[in-house]
Design a protein that fits this description.
Length: about 475
């Protein structure tokens, strides 16, 4: 079945609903128009018949009304009869002379005019007005004997047949069909970009995420959907590419120790008399410990990137730094300069991990001391970790945050490191909506962390964010 004819098609459903509503609306309008036309035609005829009847009655004052024939002139009201109270036709127009009495109704004295439509099997329907001759004329002309004047005409074909209903019904169906077609065309034209987006989306696969859906012009909802979809595809492409690069780097970093471990164990099996088993076991144990450290760091990094964020809590960075520095009794001395009440929302365990990693790196590369400071700007808390070591070259300041990237000095000072510490630190700070960068320093490396401050309204409470 074609998509636009599917039962779930928006175009078909909108067209069906619009057609039904239009049909009902036009039926009401058409019924009212039909009734209005009928009433207008009948009222026009009644007005003419009443005028003819009263005019002829007025002429009786100067006429004996003895002629049997009434002249109608050029009026279309050609059926006129004067009838006494016994039903005898006293006078009639030429068209009504051959007809029987037009109506049997005899209006009373207090309501002398009556409009009605009389129908017979032989002569059809007549639209007429029955008028009772006033008492004065009746007394003068017929000694008080009541007489009645009937004036009318044959019912017009528009009223006598179903022509008006057929025309109205045809107009209603045509208008409803036109409304349904217009709805079909407008909805189809509106949804055409959606069909193009759907077709292009069906072509996008994991192996090729570079394709983008077409973006229609304008700022309507469909255009916004297309732009949002393209932004999502761009983010997805970047994430997949990052995962591929990460998997490649991980496989490369794990291949070397695994290959070395395999070689040592194979050599011990092939040459049992020439290889010291204790030395082999010790080396293998060291290798597995390094593998275990790399795997643990990878799990931490993956958890930070993919796991839903934990409920944040208010953290006083000054107190946190003071507590952590106090535990570092060995290695290069660490000096602190903190500002009170620098409070952020975050995960305390993760922020402690970041601080420890930066302090370990700084103590490892420092010559004489490490300095940690906390300050605040209008909306951010700033943590600075500075050492007086050799520093990091400007072209390496971004590379060191990539997984498994280790500079030559770092490999020399810490041969067993995994190269994931700074990558994990950046992932943690990013998850806290902050930034971590390496900035210029007169001597050594200067790591700067910026975290959004807790809002004043939350910090002013009882410690609950």
């Amino acid at each position: 079945m074609l998509p636009h004819l599917c039962a779930r098609s928006i175009q078909a459903r909108f067209t069906l609903v619009a057609g039904i509503i239009s049909l009902l609306a036009f039926m009401i309008i058409g019924g009212g128009a039909d009734l209005g036309v009928r009433n207008r035609v009948e009222n026009t005829i009644f007005k003419e018949t009443e005028g003819v009847a009263t005019e002829w009655i007025g002429s009786l004052q100067s006429s004996s009304a003895s002629p049997a024939t009434i002249r109608t002139g050029r009026s279309r009201i050609d059926l006129i009869q004067l009838v006494d109270d016994q039903g005898k036709i006293v006078a009639a127009s030429p068209a009504a002379a051959r007809r029987p009495r037009l109506s049997a109704v005899q209006p009373p004295v207090h309501d002398r005019i009556d409009h009605r439509t009389e129908c017979t099997t032989r002569d059809g329907c007549v639209v007429l007005t029955a008028v009772r001759v006033p008492p004065l004329e009746t007394q003068v002309l017929w000694q008080g004997q009541p007489h009645y004047m009937y004036a009318g005409m044959a019912q017009p074909p528009l009223l006598a047949s179903n022509m008006l209903e057929l025309l109205t019904g045809s107009a209603i169906l045509a208008a409803a069909a036109l409304a349904a077609w217009a709805t079909w065309w407008v909805v189809g034209r509106t949804l055409r970009p959606v069909a193009m987006i759907r077709a292009k989306t069906a072509e996008i696969t994991v192996s090729d995420l570079s394709m983008r859906v077409p973006e229609p012009p304008g700022c309507d909802e469909i255009a916004q959907l297309a732009r949002t979809s393209n932004k999502t595809l761009a983010r997805l492409e970047a994430a997949v590419e990052q995962q591929r690069q990460f998997a490649s780097v991980v496989s490369h970093e794990l291949r070397s120790p695994v290959a070395g471990l395999h070689t040592q164990l194979e050599e011990a099996l092939l040459y049992p008399t020439d290889v010291d088993p204790m030395k082999t076991i010790t080396t293998a144990l060291s290798t597995t410990e390094r593998l275990q450290a790399i795997i643990d760091d990878l799990l931490v990094l993956a958890r930070i990137r993919s796991a839903p964020p934990a409920t944040p809590e208010p953290i006083d960075l000054g107190a946190l730094i003071t507590e952590e520095v106090a535990t570092r009794v060995h290695g290069t001395p660490v000096r602190t300069h903190t500002t009170g009440h620098v409070t952020v929302l975050g995960n305390k365990i993760q922020l402690i991990g970041v601080l420890n990693n930066l302090l370990v790196n700084a103590q490892r590369h420092a010559d004489t001391s490490v300095e940690v400071t906390t300050t605040r700007t209008s909306d951010h808390a700033v943590i600075t970790v500075t050492d007086d070591g050799p520093g990091i070259a400007p072209h390496d300041r971004e590379r060191v945050f990539e997984p498994f990237i280790r500079l030559e000095d770092g490999r020399r000072r810490d041969p067993g490191g995994s190269g994931l510490g700074l990558a994990i630190s950046r992932a943690v700070i990013t998850a806290h909506h902050g930034t971590i960068e390496i900035e210029d320093s007169p001597r050594g490396a200067r790591f700067v962390i910026r975290l959004p401050l807790i809002p004043e309204t939350a910090r002013g409470g009882a410690g609950t964010p």
